[in-house]
Batch of 2 targets.
Target 1
Amino acid sequence: MLAIVISVCLISNPAICRNERIPLLIHSSLTQCAMNAVPYVAQWNGEHPDWRVVRWRCSGADEKDI
């Protein structure tokens, strides 16, 4: 299983950044994950207006994501 890892920074204080994980319930390759990540990242961004997405990548999901 894969997860999208997005790096986000607080809009009011860009020095405060963190990584967020969006677990994917579908099984796909890293390439497919990267190509399909945009709607997931956009949804997360819309639900968290105080944060700015600076980059994202796909990674293997950690056990805590399951």
Note: The chain is about 25% helix and 40% strand.
Target 2
Amino acid sequence: MSEKKYHVGYTCGVFDLFHVGHLNLLERCKEMCDILIVGVCDDDYVHDIKNKEPMIPDTDRVRILNALKCVDKAELVDIATTDDKMLAYERFHFDVLFSGDDWKGSERYLRTEKQFETVGAKIEYLPYTKGVSTTELKNKMKK
């Protein structure tokens, strides 16, 4: 029997310009589950939803994440799967979704919590690493 709180965990993000904040998040997720699956938002998501240009192509971001010992599997996910966590659940069959604590209490995540109750999945909200972000890195590089 596992000592960890969950068997299969899932988190999703762009993971562009991989930095220590990303690593902290993934390590925290892995501490709570036996198997960590990471959805990597595809380039269409970055362009169409975030209105940004990815610095690193989506297939390379997947390779980087799959090389980490704290990640058991990373796969590209499209806009629909990123936006609708039930689609992610149907694809990956996780016990827990790890998400940033800035989403807690939002209409979207309150709805997702109710949907997850019907399938027995949970959401764990994790804090972001202060002082580091991809946007800040991009701004530093511009200077």
Note: The longest strand covers residues 33-41.
